[in-house]
Amino acid sequence: MTDQLRAKFENLELNAGLGKISAFISMSLGLLGIFGALCFLFPSVLTMPELRPVYSKHYDIFYLSLIIGIVLSVIFGAFSSIVRQNRYGFYGLCLALIAAILGCGLIKAPTLPSLPFYAGIDYFILTLVILALIFIPLEGFFAKNTDQKILRVGWVTDMKYFMFSHVGIQLFTFLTVMPIQYWITHLPNNPIVPYVQAQPIWLQFIELLIVVDFVVYWLHRAMHEVDFLWRFHAIHHSTEYMDWLASSRLHVVEVLMTRFLATLPIFLLGFHTSAVFAYLIFISFHAIFIHSNVRFRFPYLRWLIATPEFHHWHHSSEKPAIDKNYAAFIPLYDVIFKSVYMPNHLASVYGTVGYKIPNSFIKQFTWPFKKYIKKLRNRFDHSSKP
Ligand SMILES: [Zn+2]
Prior knowledge:
386 residues, binds zinc ion, mainly alpha, Fatty acid hydroxylase domain-containing protein
């Protein structure tokens, strides 16, 4: 995508009456329709093995959802392009047409054998649809920053992060969980494990919140205080607009590091799988919620659990808020380790201070390495001089 086109997309604002909202809905549904149709055509490589039995059992429901999505994409695209004369509506119609061709089985897909590697495109579609259905209305009705558009500056970049982390779920799990699992099997039995597993699931769930959050607190603090780590974490802080999608902006090195260190205590202490699954679903949802553009302040809960108010201050570019509120879930850690900042008003300006972080997904990936590549280059230049 050219810079001009990207700028156009990122600055695309939702204004009623111009056909942009319907064009956006049409394009989104058209794109999701294409991804969904591809999942039907190549399930062995594009869907998660854990979810495949659900798809076969409820095949009709999923296929009907695909058709409804494509039909809605056509309706919104036609309204936008014909009634409102918006060319993005026409693009939506084109996407819907491609999805329809793929989805109606007009193209016969070759049968692929079940492969050991897959892309979680289905996981991406399902989570995107569920989260969009929850957070877009929530931010619409209870917006903290009422002027902020759904398609604010940087949404395309954040959507790429969202897609990358969901489609690549197997790769992330493989790189973080597998080494730990391998390592654990070679360790002597931990005497604490039977005591942990003897406890009820709800208690293990609470313990997971306390233990993992302690590890995440110190890792997060290290990412702010150690320059090498900060370069990766600065990408997450570069967003100037807080919303549910902004939570996805995480450099791949940070994702791998956090998942690796957060998974360690879970395996070392041997928590029950049910407690771990419940914890993972809860904490993933909570992480998105605390980034969202909502004005809830939770007067009684705000010191007990991390709220959007608490985490928005962490992202604030105001001087007193810099390097504060590291806890992902338990603000008490910030109180104990003296890094809390919670004034009476809400945070309003966000972004990385001191660095100009590029806007594009690829440039953000290479940005943390630039300083070191430059150093190496300088050293090489000096040593090659006679
Ligand atoms: Zn941070």
